[in-house]
UniProtKB/TrEMBL annotation:
<dbReference type="Pfam" id="PF00535">
    <property type="entry name" value="Glycos_transf_2"/>
</dbReference>
<dbReference type="GO" id="GO:0016758">
    <property type="term" value="F:hexosyltransferase activity"/>
</dbReference>
<feature type="domain" description="Glycosyltransferase 2-like">
    <location>
        <begin position="8"/>
        <end position="141"/>
    </location>
</feature>
<dbReference type="InterPro" id="IPR001173">
    <property type="entry name" value="Glyco_trans_2-like"/>
</dbReference>
<keyword id="KW-0808">Transferase</keyword>
<protein>
    <submittedName>
        <fullName>Glycosyltransferase</fullName>
    </submittedName>
</protein>
<dbReference type="InterPro" id="IPR029044">
    <property type="entry name" value="Nucleotide-diphossugar_trans"/>
</dbReference>
């Protein structure tokens, strides 16, 4: 039986500038024996794998470097889930890193936990000296509850989530290949079977912003709009299958927020009546096919208010973007 408490899946595609910081954030003597880290080089063309292999040679019981043909982000997660021996499972992008002290705290909590999912916070910034804390829950350290009783005010992304590995396998989660935004499925599907949640009031994950090519940059969102819409569709259809689930409220709120993000992506396109009508057609199609998601989008805080305003004005409020371009969400985290 494995003594590993946490398996970490590192998606490492052409991140040679950042992979050293990523790996060294997990080199913590007190917990190395409890960590299993798969650094999955997804067909990269730079020195990422070579850099990572030096750490694998030094810590062979912890770090495992995998080089495979390019299949997209989801396939790196699929590989790690299939080979994980840790009690719990967490994602880490290759250009991001963990807070070492808070990772130690998380590992300590996971050793004795029986929760299906553990919620933490995250921080973001361009480097470790310029981080902003983002809280996605307001529970104290060690608070536990049934998952059905937790409905966050804001969506919880993969940065804040640690799943029990057995839960991931029980839900038969397999992420699509050659697509961005598959982390949205990862952060939604396992909740169909989650019963118990544990909360830790610390930021473990540090998310780097300002790097060219990031999937949530304005340019990338526009370029990969069709991929986002395909993943959106998968989340809508999955949500519909969970109407009788005790965690339906949580899943619905998370999927409704993703619908808002899809609308925001349309708002990033050049202002035109064609794009206004495209938004209207898309949103009204969701109203017909997935009415709960349509209604839920209106309750998604500030952007939900703007979406409601567009709906009430036959989407003519769209033109407010001429005066208030920030309504598109370009500056939102």
């Amino acid at each position: 039986m494995s003594n590993k408490i946490l398996t970490v899946s590192v998606a490492a595609y052409n991140v040679e500038k950042y992979i050293q910081q990523n790996i060294e954030s997990m080199i913590i003597p007190e917990i190395m024996d409890l960590l299993e880290v798969f650094i999955v080089d997804d067909g990269g063309t730079d020195q990422t794998a070579e850099i990572a292999k030096k750490y694998e040679e030094q810590y062979p019981e912890t770090f495992h470097v995998v080089h495979k043909e390019n299949g997209g982000y989801g396939t790196t997660v699929n590989y790690s889930m299939a080979h994980a021996t840790g009690k719990y499972f967490k994602l880490l992008d290759g250009d991001d890193w963990f807070d070492a002290n808070h990772l130690k705290y998380l590992i300590k909590a996971l050793r004795t936990s029986d929760a299906d999912v553990v919620f933490t916070h995250y921080a973001y910034g361009c480097d470790e000296k310029n981080l902003r804390l983002i809280k996605r829950h307001h529970m104290h350290n060690g608070y536990e509850c049934l998952m059905k009783d937790f409905v966050p005010r804001k969506p919880v992304g993969m940065w804040c989530i640690t799943f029990k590995t057995e839960l991931l396998r029980r839900t038969n989660l397999i992420l699509p290949s050659h697509s961005l935004y598959t982390d949205q499925l990862y952060a939604i599907v396992p909740f169909s079977a989650a019963k118990k949640a544990l909360f830790i009031d610390l930021p473990v994950y540090c998310y780097r912003v300002g790097r060219d090519g990031q999937s949530m940059s304005v340019e990338s969102r526009i370029r990969h709009k069709d991929e986002m819409l395909r993943i959106c569709r998968k989340t809508y259809e999955f949500c519909e299958t969970q109407r009788n689930s005790e965690n339906y409220r949580y899943i619905l709120r998370r999927v409704a927020r993703f619908h808002v993000i899809a609308i925001q992506t349309y708002l990033l396109l050049p202002l035109s009546d064609h794009n206004r009508r495209t938004i209207k057609r898309y949103d009204q199609k969701i109203r017909r096919e997935f009415p709960d998601i349509y209604k839920g989008a209106a309750r998604c805080q500030k952007m939900g208010i703007f979406v409601s305003m567009m709906r009430k004005t036959n989407y003519m409020a769209y033109w407010l973007l001429k005066i208030y371009p920030a309504l598109s969400g370009k500056n939102n985290k």
